[in-house]
Amino acid sequence: MSIIDDVLKLLGKGYLPYQGHVEGHVYESLGCAPRRKPRWFVRERKYVCLGCSMRCSLVDPVGFELMLPVTYQTKKLAFASLPAVSARELVAKKILLTIPEVEFVLSIGRSKVWEMIQEGRLEKHPDSPPARVTTESIKQELLKQGEALYILQKK
């Protein structure tokens, strides 16, 4: 797993980069000689370091500068939540799409997807506990929007 994967995983779990000072005895107690710049992430009182392959984790440690809590809401990274396939492939190969996939295909937000489901413009599969939308209803919506020429045509 690369450091980018680890960073995205931590950000997805609500961790934020730690900007404070860490005293040297912390590294000594971990048996770590920070050759590179340490990269600490924090959530509540748990600290995780991505500075080396050891991926050290500490809970409420001594030696970390106290920081004021962050009050802003974290947001998902757009590139981390996009599917690895195109909108055309999603519509062509799947019968049911998740809400994030519908957002991607139609280029709309989550609230708009739910609004379209409530209006009956998109059909939610009745037996799927996590909400799934039928690709047929998405195709119909694309036809109405005039987007179908690009997404529905075969290469």
| Integer count of domains | 2
Low-confidence stretches: 71-75, 77-83
Q: How are the strands ordered across the major sheet?
A: 1-2-3-4
What would CATH call the architecture of the largest domain? Orthogonal Bundle
What structural class is derived from the secondary structure elements? alpha+beta
Query: Helix count?
Result: 8
Number of strands: 6
Provide the β-strand percentage band: 5-15%
What overall form do the CA principal axes indicate? elongated
Tell me, what is the CATH class of the largest domain?
A: Mainly Alpha
Could you explain the architecture of this structure?
By secondary structure, the chain is an alpha+beta fold. It folds into 2 domains: 3-59, no CATH class; 82-152, Arc Repressor Mutant, subunit A. The protein is 40% helix and 12% strand. The protein has helices at residues 3-12, 24-30, 78-81, 87-93, 99-106, 110-119, 135-145, 148-152; strands at residues 16-17, 40-43, 46-49, 57-59, 96-98, 132-134.
In short, what is this structure?
This is DNA-binding protein. The protein has 155 residues and is of the alpha+beta class. It has helices at 3-12, 24-30, 78-81, 87-93, 99-106, 110-119, 135-145, 148-152; strands spanning 16-17, 40-43, 46-49, 57-59, 96-98, 132-134.
